Amino acid sequence: MNPPAHIDGSSRLDPLAEVAKTLGHPHRLALLEQIVRGERSVEKLAELTGITVANASQHLQHLKRAGCVQTRRDGKHMLYRLGPGPLASVVVALHDYVEFQHSRIREAIADSRQRPQEMESVSIDGLLDRMDEGAVVLLDIRGDEEFAQAHLPGAINIPLEQLADRIGELSRDTEVVAYCRGPYCVLSMQAVSILQAHGMQATPLAGGVPEWRAAGLALQGSTGPVS
């Protein structure tokens, strides 16, 4: 019997997840950035990245076990160079993606400045008042999995990429407050722009799940209340 497709797909992505886990530390990325520029000793890498030699050595061992770097000894020094494969392109792609996200944030901020009244956000306190009055629809535009883990009470989930097609699920007679991952997440601003373009009253929330939790307020999840 063949395994379910979703299990097979998950297993296929396991190696990718392992690489992402290896690279998912700022010190390792900082070390790789230096190694991309050329072969370096652990002492030089520690100096360039501003971390201790012991710490640099520990992270370099993680990278070596994953095949991201290779070593050779030169006298008393251990030198590190990139492992085989297009790892330099991966580092560049990560930078490009971060710059892309930053450009979206800059565009959203510029748009909000050009339309200050339309893009003015509502505070958590202001949202609580509106929720008490029953005068708002709370829209979570993150992905399904993030929503299932924890979301604001009473929120409905329509991921941003589905919003234009599912806009009919929202009442045009009630204000929509959209939120995503925090005050600097551009997704909520994009959602508001889409809703306003369809003639709906919409406002981004000045915060998200982290700010809601920091305020000592209860969250909901797939299994009930979330502390």
TrEMBL record:
<dbReference type="InterPro" id="IPR001845">
    <property type="entry name" value="HTH_ArsR_DNA-bd_dom"/>
</dbReference>
<feature type="domain" description="Rhodanese">
    <location>
        <begin position="132"/>
        <end position="221"/>
    </location>
</feature>
<dbReference type="InterPro" id="IPR001763">
    <property type="entry name" value="Rhodanese-like_dom"/>
</dbReference>
<dbReference type="InterPro" id="IPR036390">
    <property type="entry name" value="WH_DNA-bd_sf"/>
</dbReference>
<dbReference type="GO" id="GO:0004792">
    <property type="term" value="F:thiosulfate-cyanide sulfurtransferase activity"/>
</dbReference>
<dbReference type="InterPro" id="IPR011991">
    <property type="entry name" value="ArsR-like_HTH"/>
</dbReference>
<protein>
    <submittedName>
        <fullName>ArsR family transcriptional regulator</fullName>
    </submittedName>
</protein>
<dbReference type="InterPro" id="IPR050229">
    <property type="entry name" value="GlpE_sulfurtransferase"/>
</dbReference>
<dbReference type="Pfam" id="PF00581">
    <property type="entry name" value="Rhodanese"/>
</dbReference>
<feature type="domain" description="HTH arsR-type">
    <location>
        <begin position="8"/>
        <end position="102"/>
    </location>
</feature>
<dbReference type="InterPro" id="IPR001307">
    <property type="entry name" value="Thiosulphate_STrfase_CS"/>
</dbReference>
<dbReference type="InterPro" id="IPR036388">
    <property type="entry name" value="WH-like_DNA-bd_sf"/>
</dbReference>
<dbReference type="GO" id="GO:0003700">
    <property type="term" value="F:DNA-binding transcription factor activity"/>
</dbReference>
<dbReference type="InterPro" id="IPR036873">
    <property type="entry name" value="Rhodanese-like_dom_sf"/>
</dbReference>
<dbReference type="Pfam" id="PF12840">
    <property type="entry name" value="HTH_20"/>
</dbReference>
